[in-house]
Design a protein that fits this description.
This protein has 325 residues and is of the alpha/beta class. The protein folds into 2 domains: 1-142 and 284-325, Isopropylmalate Dehydrogenase (3-Layer(aba) Sandwich), CATH 3.40.718.10; 144-282, 3-Layer(aba) Sandwich (Isopropylmalate Dehydrogenase). The protein has helices at 16-23, 38-48, 90-105, 119-124, 132-140, 168-171, 174-192, 217-231, 242-245, 248-251, 262-273, 308-324, and strands spanning 4-8, 31-36, 53-56, 68-73, 111-114, 146-151, 154-158, 198-202, 235-240, 256-259, 278-282, 288-291. It has a 12-stranded mixed beta sheet with strand order 3-4-2-1-5-12-11-6-7-10-8-9, with helices on both faces. Helix 1 links the parallel strand 1 (4-8) and strand 2. The radius of gyration is 20 Å and the shape is globular.
């Protein structure tokens, strides 16, 4: 059976609608359902000169037909203009995520693929929101979500996600690291079929603390957590200096790298494959992938948005859903 994939169209003023429409022209080995405002998608398609037939969602699953887009209509709260944020549409953006998540939990969707949202305007609307990862964890009551990005054979997971740098050290605990490492070990086996994955754990400080001279988090927290997980049978190494763990000959010995904070790991993977990197949320009872870019308001409605990351996110979701079926 073809997996039915829920595709949230994201912030309506950004490039989410553009890349959803662009992907509709491609051959896709799934039943794709786009969640969004039908009229907004139609207006954006006309503005971009895209010939996309919008079809109403409902009925039996069927393979995606290039040049069409099945739409599960959710109405905007206010008119949307490409490139111009409108805070009153934030509840609509969140509603797309709620609809997709509830459908995935109910078995309606095999996976969720998300277009980018704008966290700032959602918070400006009075809705607490720190990111997709945290949203889906809360909605599914998952105690420990793990953000991982992948491009080709490179996989980078994060111990902490959207935190100010000043709060990172205090957030990294032995309990946190052990939970994240257990999730990486379990979900790489579950979704990727990698039995006993090899995990590299970065240090927090330069040179992994230089034996305590440049910080002691490695000695106090990271090394003991690594040792504990090795005793439990996990194939874990570290703490390793983050400036050398990404050297190709070092990477060859690992299936995934666990970075301690957002900008320790993400710049590397975005440099390696910005156009086709995929964001995957591990630790959830559902499968969720996402593009690895933001709303790019300046590109919205111009026809210059690259759908490559969206194509990769959908492709990976289909691949992982098939393995788990």
């Amino acid at each position: 059976m073809l997996p039915r994939i829920a595709l949230t169209s994201g912030e309506p003023a950004g490039i989410g609608p553009d890349v959803c429409l662009a992907i509709a022209s491609r051959e896709l080995d799934c039943d794709l359902v786009c969640l969004g405002d039908r009229e907004m998608l139609g207006e954006r398609a006309r503005a971009l000169g895209m010939k996309v037939e919008l079809r109403q969602y409902g009925g039996a699953a069927h393979r995606h037909v290039p040049g069409t887009l099945v739409v599960a209509h959710e109405p905007l709260r206010a008119p949307s203009v490409a490139g111009r944020l409108e805070a009153s549409n934030s509840p609509y953006v969140v509603r797309l995520l709620e609809r997709a998540c509830d459908g995935a939990l109910a078995g309606e969707f095999a996976a969720i693929v998300t277009a980018p949202v704008h966290k700032g305007v959602i918070n400006d609307a009075g809705i607490p929101f720190t990111g997709h990862t945290e949203f889906f964890a809360d909605r599914t009551r998952a105690p420990r979500p793990v953000m991982m990005l992948a491009t080709g054979s490179l996989r980078v997971a994060l111990a902490t996600t959207h935190l100010p740098l000043a709060r990172v050290s205090g957030a990294i605990t032995g309990e946190l690291l052990c939970e994240v490492l257990e999730i990486l070990d379990r979900d790489l086996a579950r979704w990727w079929g990698i039995t006993r994955p090899r995990i590299a754990v970065c240090g927090l400080n330069p040179h992994a603390g230089e034996s305590g001279h440049l910080g002691d988090e490695e000695i106090r927290v990271i090394a003991p957590a690594v040792a504990r997980m090795r005793e439990r049978g996990l194939r874990v190494a570290g703490p390793l200096p983050a400036d050398t763990v990404f050297v190709p000959r070092v990477l060859a010995d690992f299936d995934v790298v666990l970075a301690m904070y957002h900008d320790q790991g993400l710049p590397v993977i975005k440099h390696a494959g910005f156009d086709d990197a995929v964001n995957v949320t591990l630790g959830l009872p559902i499968l969720r992938t996402s593009v690895d870019h933001g709303t790019a308001l300046e590109l919205a409605g111009t026809g210059r948005a690259d759908p490559g990351s969206m194509a990769a996110a959908i492709g990976l979701a289909v691949q992982l859903a098939a393995r788990a079926a």
